[in-house]
Write a structure and sequence with these properties.
The structure holds 2 protein chains of 2 kinds.
Chain A: H1 3-6, E1 9-13, H2 18-35, E2 46-50, H3 54-74, H4 76-82, H5 92-106, E3 107-110, E4 121-124, H6 130-143, E5 149-152, H7 159-166, E6 172-177, E7 186-191, H8 197-209, E8 213-218, H9 225-243, H10 249-263, H11 270-277, H12 279-289, H13 301-308, E9 326-329, E10 332-338, E11 343-346, H14 347-358, H15 368-371, H16 377-390, H17 394-415, H18 422-432
Parallel strand pairs in A: 1-2, 1-4, 2-3, 4-5, 5-6, 7-8
Antiparallel strand pairs in A: 6-7, 9-10, 10-11
Chain B: E1 9-15, H1 35-49, E2 58-62, H2 66-69, H3 79-82, E3 91-94, H4 100-113, E4 119-127, H5 133-140, H6 156-172, H7 174-192, H8 208-212, E5 235-243, H9 245-251, E6 259-268, H10 282-295, E7 302-306, H11 312-322, H12 330-335, H13 352-355, H14 363-375, E8 392-399, E9 404-412
Parallel strand pairs in B: 2-3, 2-4, 7-8
Antiparallel strand pairs in B: 1-5, 1-6, 4-5, 6-9, 8-9
Helix pairs in contact in B: 4-14, 6-7, 7-11, 10-11
Classes of the chains: A alpha/beta, B alpha/beta.
Chain lengths: ~450, ~425
């Protein structure tokens, strides 16, 4: 496998999307860095940014410019060495601008799929639709004489299925970046049964060069990330529904969101996370995963109902949060959707009653932000959970049950051989979901 | 000993806040005061204390490189903007990189000595947060020889002093050098916490030594300095009045509130040449020796020093250049606590460049203001005890890598 050669002509499908743009940015920088090596002088590097939206591509180029400048500013110390022979580039600003130009010159925005017919590697980050992916991969594969490699960013569709249906003969690999790819450290690598080992080696080298943390996952719908998240989310929804027998669903959503954020010391509550991913995306991923699951039904009628009412969550193109289960102001949740009234109720209105129900917060509780970077967080969590164990409040009970369920989901992923070990599950939650501690722990024993 | 031909005093010092990261009110995304506001605040601060603009004969403004940070030159023309009373009066702008402030002071002193003025308003200003630090590094690199820029580090001046730090550590021991630099940082921040205008006034870090001991990261920054070794990017202005005996009377200010300029030593080194010894501030030594000789005193009479610690290593090397410690022993001198605010010779009592801040063109003036406050008992919470057997103050302001130097000796006026 010649890593550089493989990266000389690449296409990113769905390049203007939120995952695609990140993957494009990372790939563009990696390709530019290769092109700037003395041994690659004169070699042509081409990165096709393919998308169906012309407007999206315009936005992409703007995003790229900003991000590449930022990246160049960050690595200026090394870049001065890269351009040391260019006598005309003296100031940092000269070098940073030249680098941005060099990266952007590699990128070719295009609306035409034909661009991919010359590529040796195809990254795919289009809609999570198995049929569409298969259709496009087949088309490219039939017209591309270079036997290209396909790296799909699917977070739920079994790779074997894509491989066989698109007739790729083992030239497809799951390379699942987390959102946003430019920042999130995690990459899940999903190997289908008869995968080309050179392709795996290539993906590992690329991930390493992009300074990503790789977690291997077995080729089972949802893999580790969504395998955990979708079940965790469904549990949260079910708990809220159960609570709604004694209070309104609006209040119950507040309660469960608070328990999952504050009591479990996570970066956001489970309903906020569903909104962040998108209610429609969650529903869709569940529906893609569900046919492959035995003894469980990964489906929520509450999500269906929300979508019927036109409440979808997800993000605007500028990255700001759209309203979903929660309503957001400057990125912070301020109100909760009332499914009976089809409108939002201010959190401040339901909070007193909900806090009353939850009972007092454990005294050793700390916000996620305060502990996530703490080197000694292990002992913080141990102390915290020791207190949580002894408390008899509704809040403590909900939190304990949630933590237990989260652990159970993690252990099942290992038992079902989706994850190779417990540590991999924890790594995915720590790096892909920014949790401060892994779900598989002994804090509650 | 060479006495000045006329008595020269400094009075009515004024500092704006040194604005930049570390100050609670600093927000890089929001619009901030510009050059004009800083100039006006500092200038009016002094004019108010000396009875107004009508008492001023001449003015001097020190600014390093507003032409690039702020697209502004012709700075002397801001004096009438400070106060209409300065309209049509003589003014001049001086520049000597980070040593600009003291060159402005010296220019004012010379005017009084030349008897062209009895009262000179001297102001230093720099507003540098207009660009990101990585681009600011390009601008500040102009303090070195432009032809060295290409070969220089991305962070040009940190690179220069990292080379010095590395050479010093190699020659005299890395561990002790690092510990002394950490100690210097601790003193700087602790002093800055006592001065409301200091950039590090709001600093609440508990373990300062641990910060200072951080290992340098050559991949992201320079080889032999960590970020705590460096003064920050600052916006700010300082101003002071330089007056004769007659000027004092005209302004109605008592000698109790004045310091006398005893002497000043100025020295320039060739900007195109590399330092002859990376482990010593040779030009600084020349300037200090000249100032002490002209004052007719030894270092042992100096009660407090404001030195140009653009980097912690420069602070340590200054203790050697002054003669408080032998070459290579400045680390011990600092580690033993001699430069701390309760030590033998308190250095940089409001934080210095590392702690108070380093609005480059203003720094030399800020140093003089601090000495004025300390010697006249007006330093507020930052006040140190000036012992009668050590009545003198000393400032050292440096432009470039030990190139443009001014050392000034002060004493409370009698």
């Amino acid at each position: 496998m010649n890593y550089t050669e493989k990266l000389q002509n690449v296409t990113v499908l769905g390049a203007a999307g939120k995952m695609g743009s990140g993957i494009l940015l990372l790939t563009a920088i990696e390709m530019a860095d290769l092109s700037l090596k003395p041994e690659n002088k004169g070699k042509l590097f081409v990165l096709n940014a393919m998308d169906t939206s012309s407007e999206g591509l315009r936005g992409l180029m703007k995003y790229l410019k900003t991000q590449v400048l930022k990246a160049a500013e960050k690595k200026i110390v090394g870049l001065r060495d890269v351009y040391k022979d260019r006598k005309d580039l003296i100031d940092n600003s000269d070098i940073i601008n030249q680098y941005a130009e060099d990266v952007l010159f590699i990128v070719r925005p295009t609306l035409n799929i034909e661009a991919a017919y010359e590529s040796t590697v195809i990254f795919e980050a289009i809609k999570e639709d198995p049929d569409l992916k298969v259709k496009i991969f087949s088309l490219i594969n039939q017209n591309n004489k270079k036997s290209p490699w396909f790296c799909t960013n699917t977070s739920s569709i079994p790779i074997n299925l894509i491989d066989s249906k698109a007739n790729l003969g083992g030239r497809v690999l799951g390379v699942h970046f987390y959102n946003p790819p430019a920042i999130q450290k995690l990459v899940e690598i999903i190997k289908p049964a008869n995968v080309d080992n050179d392709l795996v080696e290539f993906a590992l080298m690329l991930s390493k060069n992009l300074k990503k943390i790789v977690v291997p996952s077995n080729d089972f719908a949802g893999f580790i990330g969504n395998g955990h998240f979708m079940r965790d989310a469904l549990y949260g929804i079910q708990q809220a529904e159960k609570l709604s027998e004694r209070m309104s669903l609006t209040e119950a959503v507040f309660v469960i969101n608070k328990v999952t954020q504050d009591f479990l010391i996570r970066p956001m509550g489970i309903f906020q996370l569903i909104d962040y991913v998108g209610i429609d995306v969650c529903q869709y991923i569940m529906s893609v995963m569900n046919p492959y699951l035995q003894d469980e039904d990964l489906h929520s009628s509450l999500l269906d109902k929300m979508l019927e009412l036109g409440v979808r969550g997800g993000q605007n193109s500028d990255g700001s949060q759209k309203d979903g289960f929660l309503k957001y102001e400057k990125g912070k949740p301020v109100a909760i959707y009332d499914i009976t009234k089809h409108s939002y109720t201010l959190m401040s209105e339901v909070q007193p009653k909900c806090d009353d129900l939850l009972g007092k917060l454990p005294t050793t509780i700390q916000p996620w932000k305060a502990v996530v970077g703490n080197k000694d967080k292990e002992s913080v969590f141990r102390t915290y959970y020791n207190e949580l164990k002894t408390m008899e409040t509704v809040g403590a009970e909900l939190a304990r049950n949630y933590a237990k369920r989260s652990k159970e989901i993690g252990l099942k992923l290992v038992a079902d051989k989706v994850a190779f070990n417990e540590n991999d599950v924890n790594t995915v939650l720590l790096t892909g979901f920014f949790h401060a501690y892994g779900p598989i722990n002994d804090y509650l024993i | 000993m060479t006495k000045l031909r006329r008595k020269v005093y400094m009075i009515a010092g004024y500092n704006t806040i040194s604005m930049g990261t570390g100050r609670k009110e600093f927000n890089p995304k929001k619009e901030r005061p510009g050059l004009e506001e800083y100039i006006k605040e500092a200038g009016q601060g002094v004019l108010k204390a000396i009875g107004g603009a009508q008492n001023v004969d001449e003015s001097v403004i020190g600014n390093f490189i507003g032409a690039r940070f702020n697209a502004q030159a012709n700075m002397a023309a801001f004096f009438p903007f400070i106060d209409e009373g300065l309209r049509y009066k003589p003014a001049v702008r001086v520049e000597g990189a980070c040593g600009t402030g003291a060159l402005a002071l010296v220019t004012g002193i010379r005017s009084v000595l030349a008897e062209t003025a009895e009262v000179v308003l001297v102001l230093g200003v720099e507003v540098q947060n207009t660009v990101k630090a990585i681009y600011g590094a390009d601008i500040l690199a102009a303090a070195g020889w432009a032809k060295e820029r290409k070969e220089g580090h991305a962070y040009f001046f940190p690179g220069k002093f990292s080379d010095r730090s590395k050479a010093y550590a190699q020659k005299f021991g890395e561990e002790k050098a690092r510990s002394a630099m950490a100690k210097w940082f601790q003193n700087a921040i602790e002093n800055a916490r006592l001065c409301p205008t200091a950039q590090e006034y709001h600093n609440t870090t508990k373990d300062l030594i641990a910060c200072g001991m951080n290992k340098p990261n050559p991949k992201g920054f320079v080889d032999a300095l960590n970020v705590y070794d460096c003064s920050k990017v600052s916006d700010g202005a300082s101003a002071i009045a330089i007056v004769s005996e007659e000027g004092l009377k005209r302004c109605g200010i008592s000698k109790h509130d004045a310091v006398e300029i005893i002497s000043f030593g100025q020295a320039e080194e060739d900007i195109t040449k590399a330092p002859e010894d990376l482990t010593a501030l040779t030009t600084t030594k020349v300037a200090v020796q000249k100032a002490l000789a002209d004052a007719g005193i030894t270092k042992d009479l100096i009660g407090t020093v404001e030195t140009h610690d653009c980097f912690t290593i420069a602070g340590i090397m200054a203790t050697e250049a002054i003669g408080f410690a032998e070459h290579g022993k400045g680390t011990d001198f600092v580690l033993e606590g001699n430069t701390a605010r309760n030590g033998k010779v308190p250095f940089n009592t409001t934080g210095g460049l590392v702690g108070w801040g380093h609005p480059t063109g203003a720094t030399g003036v800020h140093q003089a203001v601090t000495i004025l406050e300390q010697l006249t008992g007006k330093a507020g919470d930052a006040q140190i005890n000036i012992k009668p057997e050590r009545p003198y103050g000393l400032t050292i302001n440096m432009g470039g890598d030990d190139k443009s130097l001014v050392a000034i000796v002060y004493k409370k006026a009698e």
